[in-house]
Specification:
- The protein contains 13 helices and 13 strands.
- It is α/β, with parallel strands linked by helices.
- The protein folds into three domains: 227 residues, 3-Layer(aba) Sandwich (Rossmann fold), CATH 3.40.50.300; 42 residues, no CATH class; 75 residues, Alpha-Beta Plaits, CATH 3.30.70.
- The strands form three sheets. A six-stranded mixed β-sheet has the order 5-6-7-3-8-9, with helices on both faces.
- The radius of gyration is 26 Å and the shape is globular.
Length: 365
């Protein structure tokens, strides 16, 4: 399916008279210089040949080298006319392949970058003009960076933020107690940041970000590199503050299963353009309503026309079927006639598979 087809699918109307995040026709372009290789490549054989040819023509060695590479000015469009809204209290996933523009969007919303064109607002404020006022109500966390003081205990970073951000004593203590309990930070508060594991550091960074009670938080790959336990703690905590505190969350990740568990809505971006805005089930419908099912047999492999065998182990066969092509009633009819079936289970196709198929579609268009 083409990208144009994907943009025609939109979620049900949601009341966002006063959205927490609003992006209108946002474009962000970068100009960069890069070395452009001349035709013929730059491997050693080509280089030697070029130098020899240059000598024969009376061209100096330096001039010959200059012919191999030259500087080229290139304009890269990271975002191209992106528009979306996030209502207050929503938990929204923001996904796309590498280089799609996810991190650029996060930097624009937090005021680190300025858009080339279009308008952005967070909590009714401009991330550029009102950055100081906005940061008092906004939280930002990049999974590959830390704000902790590397050679000091975690609690000193927390106390530093309290002073610099002028957080009232009662607000600071309440939030410190909350993140300590819910993020299981009791044993790491007095640990030097440099001695923390990745999961512990991510929990500490998340706790640090929440000390000033932000109303909107932007998370860029918060579960990057975390083990199963640390990831579970992170996801449960984010879901809790969204549901109980009404915190608006916009999160990016390459782990689609994590995003599906956390968020109710997903924005997908590819090549700098917004190509999907809707539910995770809607994504499955785009790819043809793929479904996986397993059957337990007496050892015989069932013959099921219209179903693709994915694998078999100890008499358990896993199949894939497109329910838009083979309705569930027909599938059950085939299963009832197959010999040797003892049990079965039907489940949705993993969202990772759905997204992978979409990425391949986008690359080919």
């Amino acid at each position: 399916m083409s990208k144009k087809g994907l943009t025609d699918i939109v979620p049900e109307d949601i009341a966002r008279e006063n959205p927490a995040v609003n992006a209108e026709s946002v474009t962000k372009s970068f100009t960069r210089w890069q070395r452009k290789e001349t035709p013929g490549g730059s491997d050693k054989e080509n280089d030697s040949e070029k130098e020899a040819q240059g000598s024969r023509k009376g061209i100096s060695w330096k001039e010959s080298i200059r012919t191999i590479f030259r500087q080229e000015k290139k304009t890269v469009t990271a975002l191209d006319g992106v528009s979306f809204q996030v209502g207050k209290g929503e938990f929204v996933a923001y996904a796309g392949p590498n280089g799609a523009g996810k991190s650029t969007t996060m930097k624009l919303l937090s005021g680190m970058l300025q858009p080339t064109s279009g308008t952005l607002s967070v909590l009714g404020m401009s991330p550029v003009r009102d950055r100081i006022a906005l940061m008092k109500r906004l939280g930002v966390l990049f999974g590959n960076r830390t704000e902790l003081w590397w050679d000091h205990p975690v609690i000193q970073s927390f106390e530093w933020k309290k002073v610099v951000w002028d957080i009232p004593d009662e607000v600071y203590q309440r939030n410190l107690d909350m993140v300590t309990e819910l993020l299981d930070m009791g044993e790491i508060r007095n640990t030097f940041a440099r001695e923390l594991s990745l999961g512990q550091r991510m929990r500490a960074d998340l706790g640090l970000m929440l000390l000033h009670s932000p109303e909107v938080i932007l998370l860029d790959e918060p579960t990057l590199g975390l083990d199963v336990v640390a990831k579970r703690q992170m996801i449960d905590f984010l879901k809790r503050i969204n549901q109980e505190e009404g915190v608006t969350i916009l999160v990016t990740s390459h782990d689609m299963d994590d995003l599906e568990e956390m968020a109710r809505r997903i924005l997908m971006i590819s090549g700098g353009k917004l190509v999907y805005d809707g539910s995770f089930d809607g994504l499955r419908e785009i790819t043809g309503n793929l479904t996986h099912f397993t059957v337990i047999t007496d050892g015989r492999q069932p013959e099921l026309a219209g179903c693709r065998l994915l694998g078999e182990q100890n008499g358990v066969f896993e199949f894939e079927v497109d329910l838009s092509q083979l309705p569930i009633r027909e599938l059950l009819g085939k299963l009832s006639k197959a010999e040797g079936i003892m049990d079965m289970e039907i489940k949705k196709a993993p969202i990772e598979l759905v997204i992978a198929q979409l990425y391949q579609t986008w690359k080919s268009t």
